[in-house]
Amino acid sequence: MVIYGVALLSFCMLAGVILGELLGRLIGIEANIGGVGIAMLLLVLLSDQLKKSFKLGDITEKGITFWSAVYIPIVVAMAAKQNVIAALEGGMVAILAGGLAVLLSFLMVPILSRIGKK
Amino acid sequence: MNLLEIFESVFARNGIITAFLFVGIMVWFSYFLSEKFTKGRLHGSAIAIMLGLILAYWGGVITGGKQGLADISFLSGVGILGGAMFRDFAIVATAYGINTSELKKAGLAGVLSLFIGVLLSFVVGAYIAFVFGYTDPVSMTTIGAGAVTYIVGPVTGSALGAESDVIALSVAAGLIKSMLVMISTPLVASYIGLNNPRSALIYGGLMGTTSGVAAGLAATDPKLVPYGAMTATFYTGLGCLLAPSVLFLVIKLLH
Prior knowledge:
- The complex is a heterodimer.
- Chain A is mainly α.
- Chain A has 6 helices and no strands.
- The longest helix of chain A is centred in the N-terminal third of the chain and has 26 residues.
- By secondary structure, chain B is mainly alpha-helical.
């Protein structure tokens, strides 16, 4: 049943976000710490577990893979709702602060990729 | 009631369905442009994201709102489809089929990249703030936090009691960062070796802006999305933790 897949995905997301929220409160900040990341780990672990104990049916699987497949259109919609004007209104300070942060971070990717690689 | 009003009201009442159709047409058009003019070299999804940003600018100009295209009444569904709820749901879904051994191998480098990423962006932002005359510790910290992400900026700013124009600047810096990451990732990917799960994990930790990373990787190679998103989603939390506390103290001491 396709709903089983969607429900499993929903469970993981809600559980992850709740845990992320709790983690934030625990440290004393008003922010969700890694809720989505925790949800992703949960989905990986649970689907692995379920695959071992009984087969996650093809159709059930589609309830998850559909959402993974509509990821790009969702991201396009996200781009279309950005506050581009507010970004540009920040002027040079915002452009330089944001721009240099991006540039330097890009440069660090190959450096960090090399560290600890065997 | 004329025909146009009927269209508008049906579209507005069925917002998310309208968004599916609208985004579908946008993506189709973008892939068409990609094939026709770049022979597929610039990914269709990269073009779609740029097109989205241009339309968002246009939406902001004609409505004066904050939500880009989604402020146009009959396109309000774009705001729901592109909102945090669906974005996060789809990101979690991409984790299905993730290679756990890749995750374990690059785990430590991923954590390291998170700390370096937050620190690097913060220092750059705070330095630029200083250069432009925002020399008090609260403003420097707030703008530095904005260069981390557009959520860390205002969270830090309000915790430290920053002026509202400084908070607005920090949000602007974060938005610039996120949009630049969206646009430039597919263009620089080959130069920085962003073509495997390991570097994607590190990239996510360094850039950190969830929306930027989500869109940037989608336009580069969708297979890398879960790895980058996994680390990026911890970044804002880490920033909210470090910026108003440790990083603020360091700035204050240096002052």
